[in-house]
Input
Amino acid sequence: MVTHTDDSNGEVAHRIELRMLATSVRSIAELARLTDMNRPTLSQKFNGLRKWQIDDLRQIAVVLNTTIAYLLGDTEDPNPASADDETISVPVAELKRRLKFLNLEERSIFSGESSVTGVITIEVRRLLLEELALANNVPTKYLTEFNDEPEADRVEAQIEFIRAVEAAGVTRIATRSLGAMSAADYRALTRVIASR
Output
């Protein structure tokens, strides 16, 4: 994982707190819930006991309506308007597959197509993909990064498990160790639930 490695943990925490005030996020616990991050780990980062990771800051920036650049102190402008225009290259077929898996309609999110090393890619607004991920309760990197197939498989297995639990009408489930499960573990549990 990429971390922000200089000694600016306190400055990052301060900027996050400023944005929390501006967006009416009242506590670290609420921020943890909105970003689907572990509250104790988030507290440790605020207290300087752990380093901020870029993936964490990406999730926090979306929730707090700002940019990673602002949180890192690279700009004094917290306005995400400029981030709206940032585009990333993503493989067309895989993006379409993931959107279909999430039961999302294809949207007009393409700003151009090009061929890179034989793979058709498109330029997509990063903020739109991050918002789609947040709205569908999946990690933002599921729709913005395409180089970690095992993690994408685990996310999809987790979603299939949640769908099976909902379809079976299960109202209570112990979730303590679910976050550490592999894709195979999720699929095994999904088969058990679906067979009942």
In short: Residues 163 and 169 are 10 Å apart (CA to CA).
